[in-house]
Write a structure and sequence with these properties.
By secondary structure, this protein is an alpha/beta fold. The protein has a single domain, classed as Flavodoxin domain (Rossmann fold, 3-Layer(aba) Sandwich), CATH 3.40.50. The chain contains five helices and nine strands, in the order E-H-E-H-E-E-H-E-H-E-E-E-E-H. Strands 1, 2, 3, 4, 5, 6 and 9 form a seven-stranded mixed β-sheet that branches. Strands 7-8 form a two-stranded antiparallel ribbon. Strand 1, helix 1 and strand 2 form a beta-alpha-beta unit. The chain is globular and about 40 Å long.
Length: 166
């Protein structure tokens, strides 16, 4: 079973998390707001999707900021983790979806495997810390400027990672 864990301040991230949950199906994934989870709860799962929007200059969403230090108590050795970042490539082109790099680094530090990297094609931004090897470390969504592309991106991405996570 996969835990989809999100933090949402403006509901865009919650809406995205709900669509990702629907794409996985309730029989393969459970949806959790990060403000309501504990390490004990997360330790019950075999794979994860962590979802955060970017705030400020590359910061995690507030609820993720609070929970983030607790990830140090998790042993993610060999665990598959997929990341989703939300951002605004037009108004914040210098920090587009930067926050998921923080999650990426933490997952790697804790022994996890990040899956679900995506190409930059179709996005217009200047810089992003969420790039590794020229690819995003996860799925990136811009609900402010490309909402019409989000559903297809979500479906394609979930189809590409579902077997690895479940």
């Amino acid at each position: 079973m996969v835990a989809i864990v999100y933090g949402s301040s403006t509901l865009n991230t919650q809406y995205t998390a709900e669509r990702i949950h629907a794409a996985f199906g309730a029989d393969r994934a459970e949806l959790h707001n990060v403000r309501d989870v504990s390490v004990d709860l997360l330790n019950r799962y075999s794979g994860f999707v962590f979802i955060s929007s970017t705030w400020g200059v590359g910061d995690l969403q507030d609820d993720w900021e609070v929970f983030f230090p607790q990830l140090d108590a998790m042993d993610m050795t060999g665990t598959a983790v997929a990341l989703v970042g939300l951002g605004d490539q037009e108004n914040y082109p210098d920090h587009f979806c930067d926050s998921i790099r923080l999650l990426y680094d933490k997952v790697i530090e804790r022994g996890g495997r990040v899956v679900g990297q995506t190409d930059t094609e179709g996005y217009t931004f200047k810089s992003s810390r969420s790039l590794v090897g020229g690819r995003f470390v996860g799925l990136v969504i811009d609900e402010d400027n490309q909402a019409d592309l989000s559903d297809q991106r979500i479906r394609d991405w979930v189809a590409s990672i579902a077997r690895v996570l479940t």
